[in-house]
Each structure stands twice: as C-alpha cells, then as structure tokens.
C-alpha cells in the first residue's frame, strides 16, 4: 500500500451513508434462471430467488445473497456476495432483452501479492445470456468518458468530483463529506454497455478498495459498490449510488489525445 496522509480516511469511514441516493432493489428476476456464456469460455448459471441466487460455475455451486437493481430498461445490476469467499465479489450487468452481459469480478489480494499495484484486483468478462440471438452492441472497453468532469451526489454528506483523465486513470476529489479536501489519481477501466450506459470501475492505491459503478446518463444515475478492507481489517462490500451532474468536457486536438 502506498504511503498516505495521516488523516486519510479508512474505507468504512467514508463509505457510511454513501448508499443514501442508491436506486432501490427489485425482485423482478426472482423465479427466473439465466445461463451466461462468457467470451473466455466461462459458463455461469443463475437461479434467482428473493434476495438470493443459486449459482453454478463449473464444478462449484452455492446459494448466496444477491442484490438486484434495475438500472435501465430491461437492464439489471446484480451484486453477488459470496459467504464462503468474503475476499471476492461478483457484479453482473445483464440486459434480459438484448441478452448482453458483463461480469466484473473483484478480488481482495494479500498485500504481498500486490506490491506496486492496487490491492483489490478486478477481472472483466463480457458475455451473452443463452436464449434468442443477442442484440445491440457487445460490451467493450471505451474511451468515451475521457475529458469529462462530473459531480456525484451520493448523499447530503457525500459529494465527489471525478475527472476522467485517460483510458487508464481518473482523478477524484471530495467536495462535501469526511474526505473533503482529499483527492487522488487511481487506476480505472471503463466499458460501454449500451447507448448512454457505461460501467466505470476504479482501483485505489492508498487504501485497499475497488469499486464498480453503472452509469445511466439518460437518467443521470450511478449505481455501484465498493469492495475493500475496513479500518479494523474486516473485508466489507458496501453499496453506493448517486445522482450525476455533468460539469464540463475537455476536447483534445488530434494527435494530443490521452492514452
């Protein structure tokens, strides 16, 4: 972990209440079964109940807690919290109409395995839900957010500014809240899921935490989660959600675009 200021807040200190403006959960998928075939050959079966999902992934299967949120038309943000693997969590974005899917698998690693890197790693897997032929664009890494500066209001006590610097990094600063005056530049990965819909993720250096957010720019809502290590050493998976306000956009001359 990188050196940090002595007043730097732990993950649990800033995360408390950051789900105030989050969209509500839904039981729309309860009773349904979906099989997702990922581009890398992984096959995942999901049988949804109320607040839980029975999953089967190769030779492994279990029933775990799951939160489902409708973040767009026919599009769901699914967070699976593994009771038997607290250091891991899977976020799935699924459109049951176009049958497109994207998995973001977050893993809290041992500090010795992440020297010089963020301690929480993420694996990205686009896929297709079995059934009719998939429609719409396939989820793919995107540069669309580069140059955007936006404000995210998670609660009256959580307002953050994001500036998307390149395909690999973004800058943040806290405008309102316990982290006010703090900011940093962290590693990011952005996928375009559909028109005006993006999956934005970041992995912090100063504290062991990574995040996954779904942006719906039609509704100007952000829905996501943090996975990381709290101040007392516990691994914590925290929900989050915000209203988005676009503040400005930077445009680059040809040949001078960021990486």
UniProtKB/TrEMBL annotation:
UniProt entry keywords in alphabetical sequence: Plasmid
Domain Molybdenum cofactor biosynthesis protein F N-terminal positions: 7-107
Pfam family, one: MoaF
Species name: Rhizobium acidisoli
InterPro entries reported in the protein's UniProt record: MoaF_C, MoaF_N
Lineage: superkingdom: Bacteria
Lineage: Bacteria, Pseudomonadati, Pseudomonadota, Alphaproteobacteria, Hyphomicrobiales
Domain MoaF C-terminal intervals: 140-248
Name of the protein in question: Molybdenum cofactor biosynthesis protein F
